[in-house]
Amino acid sequence: KVMLPYLRINGAEEYWRALDQNLSETMIGRLKPKEALDRTAQEWNDITTRRGREAQLKQYQQSMGYRK
């Protein structure tokens, strides 16, 4: 019933790796859920900034078929 679409942009593997690592840390009790989510949000923001926010947005919009 719930689907997470594949992220089709440069650096997708970096985003998923950050999420996976933080979820794993939560599952084994090293992080509380909110800590994991906060850390993931910060890491994703850092990745987006490093790769270029506008470039990432354009790639994402194109991958989803968005047209202005």
Outline the secondary-structure elements.
Layout: H1 12-27, H2 33-51, H3 53-63
Judging from the principal axes of the Cα atoms, what is the shape? globular
Radius of gyration equals: 14 Å
Which whole number gives the mean pLDDT? 92
Distance from first to last alpha carbon: 30 Å
Structure, explained:
With 68 residues, the chain is mostly helical. Helices cover 68% and strands 0% of the residues. It has 3 helices and no strands. It has helices at residues 12-27, 33-51, 53-63. α1 runs antiparallel to α2. The longest helix has 19 residues, at 33-51. The radius of gyration is 14 Å and the shape is globular. It starts with 11 loop residues before the first helix and ends in a 5-residue tail after the last helix. The mean pLDDT is 92.
Write a brief caption for the model.
This protein is mainly α and 68 residues long.
Provide tags for this entry.
68 residues
